[in-house]
Design a protein that fits this description.
It is a single chain. By secondary structure, the chain is an alpha/beta fold. It has helices at residues 53-60, 84-93, 101-104, 111-122, 128-141, 146-149, 159-171, 189-206, 217-223, 241-246, 251-258, 276-281; strands at residues 3-16, 23-36, 42-46, 68-73, 76-77, 94-97, 177-181, 209-214, 226-231, 234-240, 291-293, 299-301. It has 2 domains: 3-102 and 177-192 and 201-263 and 272-301, 3-Layer(aba) Sandwich (Rossmann fold); 105-175, no CATH class. The chain is 36% helix and 25% strand. Helix 4 (111-122) runs parallel beside helix 7, helix 5 (128-141) packs across helix 7 (159-171) and helix 7 runs parallel beside helix 8. The radius of gyration is 19 Å and the shape is globular. The two termini are 29 Å apart. Bound molecules: adenosine-5'-triphosphate. Adenosine-5'-triphosphate binds at residues 14, 16, 25, 27, 47, 49-55. It comes from Martelella mediterranea. Residues 5-257 form the ABC transporter domain. One of its GO terms (biological process) is peptide transport.
Length: 302
């Protein structure tokens, strides 16, 4: 099996403050998982605010360096991606989709400019015709066309359309891995499922692997193949998504599930946690024991 991504014992510690008031935060502690090229999947990272999801994503994207451990993409350590050419080659294969499409796009800039820039800089498309072909192809994959969005500003598009444009921008280089950090949290509830379904479509039609980062168990249940639950920087449970969400084992996973609406609500637009206080109570029970393997393939922290 060929590894697309391998995260090996990765930790990130942020040091803050001056010499006299030095503080540090262990944002990610000894994280490990792998994605294979042959089986494109939606690998979901879930956890409460501050559990380390974004820091882990930023390390995979090469935006943050691990304090320990190694991240390999296509067998090559991302730490060795140094020159501009190497960085561009890496960015062609690994693309981010961020949370807030209204922040991704400058309100004073036409949204198509972002697409032209990606086609020119990342894909290396030289002529306008080449760029437009790549852009229109990417927009078609998300159910839009260049004709529809050309010359328009962010405020002239809905949140859902704008997030589709953001995903199209990420698709221009035909990446093998998309890292979508809370891609639906700023989108209207009524449009969320269409974005979530789009991610699933990209996996099925284009064979793109997706790392889907969310707080939301309902959409996670709906689209994930595998799931990783993080608490205070630690992975506490990881494995087949439905098995974990149907029958969580780690105390934090159980409490997280208990704090949200029934899983039957997935796909009905009502995705807000019912009671965050239950999950918040589990913050105090972060475990640092070893991961133990279960018969169904899941790993649970002891
Ligand atoms: N640049 C930074 N400097 C200092 N601390 C940071 C930095 N980035 C993140 N942290 C801290 O690391 C921890 C993990 O943060 P992170 O943003 O990765 O969590 P998260 O699970 O993505 O949260 P959210 O769901 O709110 O985005 C938090 O305690 C956060 O305050």
């Amino acid at each position: 099996m060929t590894r697309l991504l391998e995260v090996r014992n990765v930790s990130k510690r942020f040091n803050m403050g001056g010499l006299l008031s030095r503080k540090s935060v262990n944002a990610v502690v000894d994280a490990g998982f792998a994605l294979n090229s042959e089986t494109p999947e939606i690998f979901t990272i879930i956890g409460e605010s501050g559990s380390g999801k974004t820091t882990l994503a930023r390390m995979i994207l090469g935006l943050e360096r691990p304090s320990a451990g190694d991240i390999l993409f296509d067998g090559q350590s991302t730490d060795t991606v140094r020159s501009r050419a190497e960085r561009l080659a890496f960015m062609r294969k690994v693309q981010p989709v961020f949370q807030n499409p209204f922040e991704t796009f400058n309100p004073l800039k036409k949204v198509d400019r972002y697409l032209y820039t990606s086609a020119r800089m990342l894909l290396g498309a030289k002529t306008e015709a080449e760029q437009e072909k790549a852009i229109d192809g990417a927009l078609q994959k998300v159910g839009l066309s260049l004709k529809e969005i050309k010359g328009r500003f962010a405020h002239e598009l809905s949140g859902g359309q704008l997030q589709r444009v953001a995903i199209a921008r990420a698709l221009i280089t035909e990446p093998s891995l998309l890292i979508a950090d809370e891609p639906v949290s700023m989108v209207d509830a009524s449009l969320r499922m269409s974005i979530v379904n789009l991610l699933r479509d990209l996996r099925d039609r284009l064979g793109v692997c997706v790392i889907y980062i969310t707080h939301d168990l309902a959409t996670a249940y709906y689209i994930s193949d595998r799931l990783m639950i993080m608490q205070k920087g630690y992975i506490v449970e990881m494995g087949p998504a439905r098995a974990i969400l149907d029958n969580p084992e780690h105390p934090y996973s159980k409490l997280l599930k208990a704090s949200v609406l029934p899983i039957d609500d997935a796909g009905h637009g009502n995705l807000e946690p019912a009671d965050r206080s239950v999950a918040n109570a589990a913050w105090s029970s972060a475990g640092s024991g070893a991961m133990q393997e279960r018969a169904d393939g899941r790993l649970v922290r002891g």
